[in-house]
Write a structure and sequence with these properties.
- By secondary structure, the chain is α/β, with parallel strands linked by helices.
- Helices cover 31% and strands 14% of the residues.
- The chain is built from 6 helices and 6 strands, in the order βββαβααβααβα.
- A hairpin with a 4-residue loop joins strand 2 and strand 3.
- The chain is globular, with a radius of gyration of 17 Å.
C-alpha cells in the first residue's frame, strides 16, 4: 500500500507565460512541494505524468496558497515564498547551500554566478553554482532566473532564455539594446 504522505500529487497554475506545475506529496495537514515545472510546449499534465506517472491531480489549502502566490508573482507583485513548503530531501548539500543563498536575492535585483559563489565562500565555484541552479527543482519559489553571467548576458535557464528575460523584465530589470542586463543593482 502506498504511503499517503509520499503519494505524488499535482496542481497546475495557468498564467500568461503558460501552465506552471506544482508537484507535491503529503496531505492537508502536511504537504511538501517536490518540483515546480515551468511552461512547456506540451500540456503541463503530460510533463508531470512523464516524470511522475502515478501523480494525481489534487489540491489542499497550503498548495492553493502557493498557487495564488505564483499567480500574483507572475502578475507583477513582489512575493516572498515560504521555503518550509519545499521538500529539501532531493537536494545535495552544495546545491542546498547555493539555493538557500540565491533565494535571498531581492525582487528586481540580479547577481552573477561568480558573485553567488563568493557569497557562499567558494570563490572558484561559479560553474558549480551554475550547475546547482540548473538543477533547481523549485524555480520561481527559489528564483534562479535572477542569476546571470558576469558580462550581463543571461546564461541558461530551465524554462528557456525567453522566459528568464520575461521574468526579469516583470521584476523591472533593465536591458540594454544589445540584450544584456544593465548591471546597476547587482546583489
Amino acid at each position: 500500500m502506498i504511503d499517503s504522505l509520499r503519494e505524488v500529487k499535482c496542481s497546475i497554475v495557468d498564467s500568461r507565460f503558460g501552465e506552471i506545475g506544482i508537484v507535491w506529496v503529503g496531505n492537508r495537514k502536511r504537504a511538501k512541494i517536490i518540483r515546480i515545472c515551468l511552461p512547456a510546449a506540451i500540456k503541463m499534465i503530460h510533463v508531470i505524468k512523464g516524470a511522475y506517472p502515478d501523480a494525481v491531480s489534487d489540491s489542499v489549502s497550503v498548495i492553493q496558497r502557493v498557487c495564488r502566490k505564483i499567480e500574483d508573482y507572475l502578475n507583477g507583485s513582489p512575493i516572498e515564498f515560504d521555503l518550509d513548503i519545499l521538500d529539501e530531501s532531493c537536494l545535495y548539500a552544495f546545491q542546498k547551500e547555493v539555493l538557500w543563498a540565491e533565494q535571498k536575492i531581492p525582487y528586481g535585483r540580479i547577481s552573477t554566478y561568480g558573485r553567488l559563489a563568493l557569497k557562499i565562500g567558494r570563490p572558484c565555484a561559479a560553474r558549480a553554482v551554475g550547475t546547482a541552479l540548473a538543477r533547481n527543482p523549485f524555480p520561481i519559489i527559489i528564483p534562479c532566473h535572477r542569476i546571470i553571467r558576469a558580462d550581463g548576458t543571461l546564461g541558461g535557464y530551465q524554462g528557456g532564455i525567453k522566459l528568464k528575460r520575461a521574468l526579469l523584465e516583470l521584476e523591472g530589470v533593465q536591458f540594454s539594446r544589445s540584450g544584456s542586463v544593465v548591471l546597476e543593482e547587482v546583489w
